[in-house]
Amino acid sequence: MESKKSILIIDDTYTNIELFHAIIGDQYEILFATKGLEGYEAALRHLPDLILLDVMMPDLDGYEVCRRLKKHPSTKAIPVIFISVLDHEEDEEKGLEAGAIDYIAKPFNVTSIKAKIRNHILFKDMLTKAEYRIEQ
């Protein structure tokens, strides 16, 4: 039996972490961090299958965390989805330019976010398998 895929939630609001755990915790192993730097270090340590990342945090903001993740060889292929109350076009553009695969503004549709998470993980797995076959 295949083990559960893991999702790292980096958000400084425990309520948001608990909400995501309630929404997707039965399908995925949930890891979390409440500060940007702590989240970056957790990503390096655990190499999750996907990261849900808040933009506004007290130490490193989400944009900087994402940029660092995308520069590091161990984490550059991990899909990052920004989840934020910032819903202006410029905010989304900034998140995507930092390297995120998606940007979802709060409030969000639960069915939609579950599908996006599933699809991004499946796509990452397909790419990983394709890269493995090419290297062989």
UniProtKB/TrEMBL annotation:
Please list which residues make up the signal peptide: none
Keyword Protease set for record: no
Kindly list the biological process annotations in GO that this record carries: phosphorelay signal transduction system
Q: Identify residues that carry 4-aspartylphosphate.
A: D54
Instruction: Spell out the Pfam families in the cross-references.
Output: Response_reg
Keywords recorded for this protein, A-Z = Phosphoprotein
UniProt entry tagged with the keyword Phosphoprotein? yes
Instruction: Name all Response regulatory domain ranges.
Output: 6-121
Database matches in SUPFAM superfamilies: CheY-like
Entry protein name: Response regulatory domain-containing protein
What is this organism's lineage?
Bacteria, Bacillati, Bacillota, Bacilli, Bacillales
